[in-house]
Amino acid sequence: AHASDIECQEFKNQLKLLISQTTKRSCMTRFFFLMLLSCSVTIFAQTKKGNNAVAVLEFQKTGAITNDDVLTLTNRFRAMLFQTNTFNVIERQKMREILKEQQFILSDECSTNECAVQVGQLLGVEYMIAGDIGHIGDTYTIDLRMIDVSTGQIVQTNSKDYDGKIAGLLEIMKQIAHNFSQIQQRVAKVKPEENKAVILNCT
Questions:
Q1: Tens digits of residue pLDDT in 63-80
Q2: What are the residues whose beta carbons fall under 8 Å from the beta carbon of 181, sequence distance 6 or more?
Q3: Which of 34, 60, 156, 181 could hold 86 in an S-S bridge, CB 3.0 to 4.6 Å?
């Protein structure tokens, strides 16, 4: 009987230990679940409040305009786009680093919507901006478009003609960036069901 009582007591002790461990695990499980839920809500809130991620492809050139000039204007456009506080713009060097990690060679001829979408998917952005800068006679032409990476559709276009010295295009880049920002802000206020397949033009 004495041995039986000892075995019974040991069983009770083991049972208490098991219950205690189970309770601790349950508490920890609930704690981690609540933490995960809290983090998820925080991330979701930050995403909703955050700006749209966008990357800009190097502009293509036509006519009497140099590669260095186009590169300078593309970089100026990126900077002006960032300063609108409407977009999260990926800088040129960061783009190349990410694409290199993905073993993707970004060609200077990457100007089609299909190529822009492919690059955008690798970069993890929502929008890509591509376009052309041309020179005809005394007139410079700028034609830019914003592409939705998820659909491949053009959602904005901006076109400008400018007569004067090429340095004046720096101010034009600022104007176009501002136009993109204004339109994007208006689109963001439109309900999703009212915003399907909408292409906005600004000249």
A1: 888 989 999 999 999 999
A2: 81, 84, 85, 86, 87
A3: 181
Which helix (DSSP H) or strand (DSSP E) does residue 132 occupy? strand 127-136
Q: Select from 195, 201, 162 the least CA-distant residue to 179.
A: 201
Q: Residue 180: which of 128, 133, 115 has the closest Cα? A: 128
What does the radius of gyration of the chain's CA atoms come to, in whole angstroms?
A: 28
Q: Which of 120, 183, 184 is closest to 150 using CA atoms?
A: 120
Q: Tokens for 46?
A: 């930050």
> Number of C-alpha atoms within 13 angstroms, CB side, residue 33?
6
Bridge partners (DSSP) of residue 60 are: 132
Label each residue of 89-154 as H, E or C.
ECCHHHHHHHHHHCCCCCCCCCCCHHHHHHHHHHHCCCEEEEEEEEEECCEEEEEEEEEECCCCCE
Instruction: Look up residue 182 and give its amino acid.
Output: Q
pLDDT, tens digit, for every residue of 110-132? 778 898 999 999 999 999 999 99
From residue 132, how far is each of 4, 71, 73, 109, 159 by CA, in Å?
91, 12, 11, 11, 10
Closest residue by Cα to residue 127 from 93, 88, 97 = 88
Quote the pTM value: 0.67
